[in-house]
Design goal:
Its EC number is 2.7.1.49, 2.7.4.7. This protein is α/β, with parallel strands linked by helices and 304 residues long. The protein has a single domain, classed as 3-Layer(aba) Sandwich (UDP-N-acetylmuramoyl-L-alanine:D-glutamate ligase). It contains ten helices and ten strands. The protein has a ten-stranded mixed beta sheet with strand order 1-10-9-8-7-6-5-2-3-4, sandwiched between helices. Helix 2 runs parallel beside helix 3, helix 3 packs parallel to helix 4 and helix 5 packs across helix 6. The protein binds adenosine-5'-triphosphate and 4-amino-5-hydroxymethyl-2-methylpyrimidine. The site of 4-amino-5-hydroxymethyl-2-methylpyrimidine has 16 residues, from strand 2, strand 3 and helix 7.
Length: 304
């Protein structure tokens, strides 16, 4: 993996150091997201990713979806008071070092999450602005987009839109790299500290290029395009790996490199389950880069 361009294959991951211990002191992350009964996206993808990256995963459920690799068959939101209650239960006892949001569904839930984010002063808040599932089902009500940009983004350290989400947020069409950059600047103007505009929907491309904008400059994170239909949950998995890296104390650029490696491994080592868009392989990273728990003898050692 390189910034600007390059390949992931065969490289050792030098960005992730061993946690001091898997007992006291293990980093905790919180995901505030919807349930995907099919296990490839949503809360399930987030918790699997946290676990693979030696971060203790906790969750606040925003909605229950009846979903599999063929599509979303039902969406049942959780009352906003219950979302707040779940967040408080986790925050007051387990002190998450990083927090991720995924499917938030309604303006009411977004308001509740933003209010708690401000209350706890979360410094590592990753907002994945989930809007529409790959099959077309709405996971965020259209009228909630305004609450997302006005209430949640000013509190976030990073937001990770895909191209259609960036188009919906900004009202711009994005076809070229310079239009991606304009959209990232526009999103950054709402107060979020970093924008990562993902390239998974770019189409007709040799590389999947994710663009980071930090308010002053752009960095590209690129990996070879993987020709596969098993892409269900790529966005959730990518943002969860980024959150896990931040929970582990990485800088944002280090955590992004980790996330890019994690999703690349998850795409190139397919599970081939389900008859539609199958899930990515959350074991892929550790199968590619080694076993987090056995290989590293001390915290000074560099992992994998
Ligand atoms: N076919 C692919 N080959 C390589 N990388 C990919 C591919 N598809 C997606 N990615 C990478 O996966 C990550 C997620 O990007 P993507 O744009 O697919 O998110 P998403 O649309 O939000 O995902 P989803 O809605 O399915 O959860 C990014 O790092 C992107 O570059
Ligand atoms: C619950 C849930 N969250 C996010 C996504 C986006 O992939 C999905 N399909 N389902």
């Amino acid at each position: 993996m390189q910034r600007s361009s390059g390949t992931v294959a065969g490289e050792r991951d030098r960005s992730l150091s061993q946690p001091d211990s898997l007992g006291p002191g293990i980093p905790v992350a919180l995901t505030i997201a919807g349930s995907d009964s099919g296990g490839g996206a949503g809360i399930q993808a987030d918790l699997k990713t946290f676990q693979e990256l030696a971060v203790f995963g906790t969750s606040a459920l925003t909605a229950v979806t009846a979903q599999n690799t063929k599509g979303v068959h039902g969406v049942h939101p959780i009352p906003a008071e219950s979302v707040t209650g779940q967040i408080d239960a986790v925050a007051e006892d387990l002190f998450p070092a990083a927090v991720k949001t995924g499917m938030l569904f309604s303006a009411e839930i977004i308001e509740a999450v933003a209010e708690r984010a401000a209350h706890y002063g979360w410094q590592n808040l990753v907002v994945d602005p989930v809007m529409i599932a790959k099959g077309g089902a709405r996971l965020l009500q259209t009228e909630a987009i305004q609450a997302l940009t006005a209430r949640l983004l000013p509190l976030a350290s990073v937001v990770t839109p895909n191209i259609p989400e960036a188009e919906a947020l900004t009202g711009r069409t994005i076809a070229t790299m310079s239009e991606r950059k304009e959209a990232a600047r526009h999103i950054h103007s709402w107060g979020v500290r970093h924008v990562v505009l993902k390239g998974g929907h770019a189409g007709n491309t040799a590389q999947a290029i994710d663009l980071l904008y930090d308010g002053s400059g752009f960095t590209e994170f690129a990996a070879p395009w993987v020709d596969t239909r098993h892409t269900h949950g790529t966005g959730c998995t990518f943002a969860a790996a980024l959150t896990a890296g931040l929970a582990r104390g990485m800088r944002l650029d280090e955590a992004l490199l980790l996330a890019k490696r994690f999703i690349q491994s998850a795409l190139t080592d397919p599970l081939e389950i389900g008859s539609g868009h199958g899930p990515t392989n959350h074991w892929g990273y550790n199968r590619t880069y080694g076993d987090l728990y056995r290989i590293i003898p001390s915290k000074e050692a560099v992992i994998l």
